[in-house]
Specification:
563 residues, alpha/beta, four-stranded parallel β-sheet, three-stranded antiparallel β-sheet, 21 helices, 13 strands, 53% helix
Length: 563
């Protein structure tokens, strides 16, 4: 139930429709302290229409308000503060959550429309490092949030499986490579060859020419070049999928850059036909001066295509295949200008989904303050970090709960969840310096803290003998319980806000608040006491468990029942 709407309707009835209910709704606030009520309306926005002082208007609203959901309504200067009926509201909220369970907060604003999400996109023949974490987990969470808001996301892992780097890799493999080594540990050796190439070409610049020749052979379909490229792609995908499995991330398609090779000429033909392609110093560009942007370079002077050429082909393919209402690109913030150019070109081409193209930028991830770079050998492998996190989580679990069954599964859920949550609790635009020890703590703003709150709720329910679901009264008036109730009631709005902002941290920060409020309630309240409110307290614990588990699911994090 939307209590802001109830307040808006009540105020609107007092002012006799002189201000729209929607305008009133938009101005309703949540006071910083519960002493000022649960919701507040600033009456000064009505002064102009009613020709009265805000204080007089506030008092008139209080004198004439009518609403069964309010415990009391008081004027505080120009503000009208509404105190909701704790018993009535707590019963309504808990009953709704128990009825809808994990579907609490679902809405249909997406109307089953498709949204494509370009995410993760690692480069073939290179390991997935910590640098790939952000795009992967942010994109995965956004997809889950979109689904809860009624959209149909298509997760596209747009693999970096084409480009001059393959000429370099083929050259390096033929000079220093071993088929036996690559078969034994493909990614490790392929990346070592790549790193060695960039060290050696400083001494032997002729290696760059060899690499260009090999990539040209690959483009021309040379059997040896194609064979090696396919092999590199196959072993890389196998390694990537091991990491994705650990993260619990799946994709709907893996169409990489190579998939669009045959579609690039179509892009050029369309741009020419529409009169959008111009020559500039021998290159082919699309003029974007009317958008206050630099020209988009479509073809280099030698006729070679660029990233934007492929991204235009990709956007056309997605439009024709999926008819999306939005195209989301979960890519680092350093590419912001590029996506402005891409969107401008697609709009000029009249692409249906151009207006719905959104770059979802995120900040840099560093490890111990250092930027990650495959080329320079500064790599922190994501797989190794995940394994180390699981190992450390198991050590903590053994210390805290040595009798816990299925320790390995729980350790994996906690260890992986700590890394995912540790990323997503931050506003995505912020840069992160990764610290595994901090993210694995069971106290503070961490994933294990939220998971432990959920496990604590489950433990209480296992100990309970009462059938808390079959009750006709879930009324609670305790102040600590009320803080929990208000947070639960806010969950549907959190879901909508996270979707509107493409921001998983909205859910992560909410889950921390709910876990903290629940832990305070647990510390101050004897829940399993046999009295008239036992069922209501247990129902509240069950509701918290449902919402914490669903919040973690939206982030791509598991919620163990025991820890």
């Amino acid at each position: 139930m939307d209590y802001k709407q109830i307040v808006a309707d009540a105020v609107s009835s007092v002012v006799d429709g002189k201000v729209s209910t929607n305008d009133i709704y938009a101005k309703i606030e949540k006071p910083k302290t519960s002493a000022n009520g649960d919701l507040s309306f600033p009456a000064f926005i009505l002064s102009k229409e009613l020709h009265k002082s805000p204080q007089v208007i506030a008092q008139e609203i209080v004198d004439n308000i009518n609403g069964e959901s309010f415990e009391k309504v008081v004027a505080a200067g120009p503000y009208v503060n509404f105190f909701l009926d704790k018993g009535k509201v707590s019963h309504q909220v808990i009953e709704t959550v128990l009825t809808e369970e994990e579907h609490f907060g679902d809405n249909h604003q997406g109307e089953d429309r498709v949204v494509t999400i370009d995410m993760s996109s690692p480069n073939i023949a290179k390991p997935m490092s910590m640098g790939h974490l952000r795009s992967t987990v942010i994109g995965n969470s956004i997809a889950k949030i979109l689904t809860k808001n009624g959209y149909k996301p298509i997760k596209d892992n747009h693999l970096g499986d084409w480009g001059t780097q393959f000429g370099k890799l083929i050259t390096a493999y033929l000079k220093w490579g071993s088929e036996e080594d690559v078969k034994r540990d493909p990614i490790h050796y392929l990346v070592q060859y790549y790193i060695r190439f960039h060290k050696e070409d400083e001494i032997h610049p002729e290696y760059d020419e060899e690499a260009r020749e090999w990539f040209k052979k690959l483009e021309d379909g040379d059997p040896e070049a194609v064979h090696l490229w396919k092999w590199f792609r196959e072993v890389s995908l196998e390694a990537f999928n091991q990491t994705y499995k650990k993260l619990g991330v799946e994709f709907d398609t893996y169409n990489g850059e190579s998939f669009y090779n045959e579609k690039l000429q179509d892009v050029v033909d369309i741009l020419k036909k529409d009169g959008l392609l111009e020559k500039s110093q021998g290159a082919s560009v699309v003029d974007l001066s009317d958008e206050n942007l630099n020209p988009a370079l479509i073809l280099k002077t030698d006729g070679a295509s660029l990233y934007v050429t492929r991204d235009i082909a990709t956007a056309i393919y997605r439009d024709e295949t999926y008819h999306p209402v939005m195209n989301l690109y979960v890519v680092g913030s350093e590419q912001t200008y590029y996506f402005k150019q891409l969107k401008a070109v697609l709009k000029k081409m009249g692409l249906d989904s151009a207006a719905g193209l959104h770059h979802i930028p995120f900040g840099l991830i560093t490890v111990n303050g250092k930027k990650l770079s495959t080329r320079h050998g500064n790599i922190v492998l994501l797989n190794e970090v995940l394994d180390e996190s699981v190992k450390m989580a198991k050590q903590q679990i053994v210390e805290k709960n040595p009798d816990l069954k299925d320790k390995d599964r729980v350790a994996e859920e906690v260890g992986v969840g700590a890394i995912v949550f540790g990323d997503l609790k931050n506003s995505r635009i912020d840069s992160i310096d990764f610290n595994l020890q901090e993210q694995l703590k069971f106290e503070g703003e961490t994933g294990p803290y939220v998971q432990y709150a959920h496990a604590r709720a489950q433990s209480i329910l296992r100990k309970a003998k009462s059938d808390y679901i079959n009750s006709d009264n879930y009324a609670l008036t305790n102040e600590d319980a009320w803080e929990v109730i208000k947070l639960i009631q806010a969950f549907p709005e959190i879901v909508k806000r996270a979707n509107a902002e493409f921001e998983p941290s909205v859910v992560a920060k909410y889950s921390l608040k709910l876990a903290k409020a629940f832990n305070k309630y647990y510390a101050h309240t004897k829940i399993l006491v046999e009295d008239d409110e036992l069922n209501a307290r247990l129902a509240l614990v069950k509701s918290v468990s449902i919402i914490l588990k669903e919040s973690l699911r939206l982030l791509g994090v598991k919620a163990p029942n025991e820890m």
